[in-house]
Recover the amino acids of this structure.
């Protein structure tokens, strides 16, 4: 009636409804999943509004009064928050520098192994910690580093030095986090790189050998450039998750003595939100963190796509 | 290979193998230390001198661990949780993946985005906690199973697998009068067995290792899952004593070291035993995810 040659909105709705009528069995299969996503993802998303309210348990989300930006102001005025923010960034940056290259190096080493059985055994052993929870692995590490009976400190004492309480020492706690994260995930991290290494054209090696390149040279001119796309993409993703600290690891390894260097955003949220029941304040912090994380993820996804297209040619 | 190995290459190979053997040893060594301690007598476990093998191996610590009701109830609760998770999470993931993979789903693109968005935008810990609380799920095993019923990453991988099944197979079945459930059960699932196994393993190990949700949602100690019991015994006890005064007081933490060791071993033995056999499913799943994601 109004727009000529164009379907009326009501008409489109009608054909749409027809579609649902015709294919209802398939939509019905989607319904349980939709209910799940609405209840456990979209409703909590609405729950974020308590960051802008004085949330009281008894009054519920709707009944609580609006508080404006009060809790954001509180967050940004809090030294504890900035400390946890700083620690998150420092620990993530340290992991980016030290933990990120570790599986690449291990993959390059495994790639040189010609004995397949040996390779398989080393791989399987290195996967072990990945399958354990941080509760188990953290427990193993804490006893390994124990100042009285732990292996590391027995060595230190045998060499005539004072024992070091690694997990309760602010100088040591961050390096310990980095080392244990390498320990736990180095083997598992090789999978992507080994798959990339499998795809390297063997003729390139033969050509390099004919040109007189030794093993070391071959690694620099053939192997590394070939797996560079995989490395760059993994790196971009890691940068993208820089505000996502490893809650499981830190929560199971830290203790009051290292709050100064070990408290990160997610452990801080747990402490004041769940333990301290400051729901509005902790939700405000969580929202701030999630917004940064979202910007980073969207940004890095974009970068990856751009890089992927560039890498193809 | 062109020509023989040079001397340099031989040295390289030897060093490479040596480093890999050393790394594997280092990987396992802390676990050996825990096993060793768990079989030691109280006085030996707190000894300030290194020993590689317990002089008088003993089951003492294990007897104490097995005498602890929390360990048994933890095992039981973990098993219950895993069974529920396998039932509910697999059914939901497979149904949703199948619907999203189906060409006939109305507004397919919209629903896919509707689901995908939740991977990037989340309410965070506290709103979810308050939701579970207001649903009355506290202290109920469903608080551990339902909130993470569908993992979007797994869902997309299963969906992609379903999409790769040729349409002709499905159409042929439809002509024969098979309904959607029939197509799913007799065509899609048998053809997607590798990814279904991977999904099952992901859910199994993921639920076995989960502890945080139990820490938040379960208050009755007899309802704790194994990992949470373990955390109470080995992590929280050491976090409490972790001030500097506790350093170098030998003998004080004597048998607790052995008991902690035995607890770790008892609760991680199942995973340690099965992981070499199920790792291939995880590797496959990860590679599919890396390529498609």
């Amino acid at each position: 009636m109004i727009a000529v040659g164009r379907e009326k909105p009501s008409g489109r709705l009608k054909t749409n409804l027809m579609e649902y009528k015709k294919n209802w069995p398939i939509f019905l299969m989607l319904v349980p999943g939709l209910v799940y996503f609405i209840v456990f993802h979209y409703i909590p998303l609405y729950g974020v509004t308590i960051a802008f309210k004085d949330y009281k348990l008894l009054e519920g989300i709707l009944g609580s009064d609006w508080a404006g930006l009060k809790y954001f102001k509180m967050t940004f005025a809090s030294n504890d928050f900035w400390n946890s923010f700083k620690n998150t960034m420092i620990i993530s940056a340290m992991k980016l520098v030290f933990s990120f290259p570790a599986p690449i190096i291990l993959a390059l080493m495994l790639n040189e192994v010609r004995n397949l059985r040996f390779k398989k055994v080393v791989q399987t052993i290195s996967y072990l910690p990945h399958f354990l929870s941080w509760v188990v692995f953290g427990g193993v590490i804490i006893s390994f580093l124990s100042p009285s009976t732990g292996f590391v400190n027995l060595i230190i004492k045998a060499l005539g030095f004072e024992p070091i309480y690694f997990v309760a020492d602010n100088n040591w706690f961050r390096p310990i986090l980095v080392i244990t994260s390498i320990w736990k995930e180095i083997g598992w991290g090789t999978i992507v790189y080994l798959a990339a290494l499998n795809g390297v054209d063997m003729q390139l090696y033969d050509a390099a050998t004919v040109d007189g390149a030794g093993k070391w040279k071959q690694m620099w001119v053939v192997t590394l450039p070939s797996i560079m796309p995989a490395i760059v993409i993994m790196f971009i993703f890691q940068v993208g998750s820089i505000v996502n600290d490893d809650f499981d690891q830190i929560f199971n390894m830290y203790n009051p003595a290292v709050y100064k260097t070990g408290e990160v955003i997610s452990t801080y949220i747990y402490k004041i939100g769940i333990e301290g029941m400051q729901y509005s304040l902790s939700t405000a912090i969580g929202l701030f963190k999630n917004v940064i994380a979202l910007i980073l993820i969207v940004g890095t996804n974009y970068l990856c796509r751009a890089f992927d297209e560039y890498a193809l040619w | 290979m062109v020509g023989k190995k040079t001397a340099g290459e031989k040295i390289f190979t030897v060093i490479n193998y040596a480093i890999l053997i050393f790394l594997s040893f280092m990987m396992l060594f802390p676990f050996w230390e825990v096993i060793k301690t768990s079989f030691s007598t109280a006085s030996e476990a707190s000894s300030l001198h290194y020993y590689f093998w317990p002089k008088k191996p003993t089951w003492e610590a294990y007897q104490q661990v097995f005498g602890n009701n929390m360990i048994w109830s933890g095992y039981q609760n973990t098993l219950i949780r895993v069974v529920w998770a396998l039932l509910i999470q697999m059914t939901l993931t497979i149904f949703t993946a199948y619907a999203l993979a189906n060409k006939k789903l109305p507004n397919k693109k919209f629903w896919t985005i509707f689901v995908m968005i939740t991977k990037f935008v989340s309410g965070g810990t506290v709103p979810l906690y308050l939701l579970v609380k207001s649903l009355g799920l506290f202290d109920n095993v469903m608080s551990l199973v339902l909130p993470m019923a569908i993992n979007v990453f797994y869902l997309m991988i299963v969906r992609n697998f379903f999409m790769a099944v040729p349409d002709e197979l499905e159409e042929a079945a439809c002509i024969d009068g098979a309904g959607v459930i029939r197509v799913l059960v007799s065509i899609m699932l048998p053809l997607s067995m590798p990814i279904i196994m991977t999904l099952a393993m992901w859910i199994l190990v993921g639920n076995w290792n989960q502890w945080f949700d139990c820490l938040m949602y379960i208050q009755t100690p007899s309802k704790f899952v194994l990992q949470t019991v373990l955390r109470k015994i080995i992590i929280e006890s050491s976090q409490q004593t972790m001030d500097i005064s506790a350093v170098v007081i030998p003998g004080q933490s004597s048998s607790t070291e052995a008991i902690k060791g035995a607890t770790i071993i008892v609760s991680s033995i199942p995973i340690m035993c099965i992981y070499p056999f199920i790792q291939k499913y995880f590797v496959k799943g990860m590679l599919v995810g890396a390529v498609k994601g």
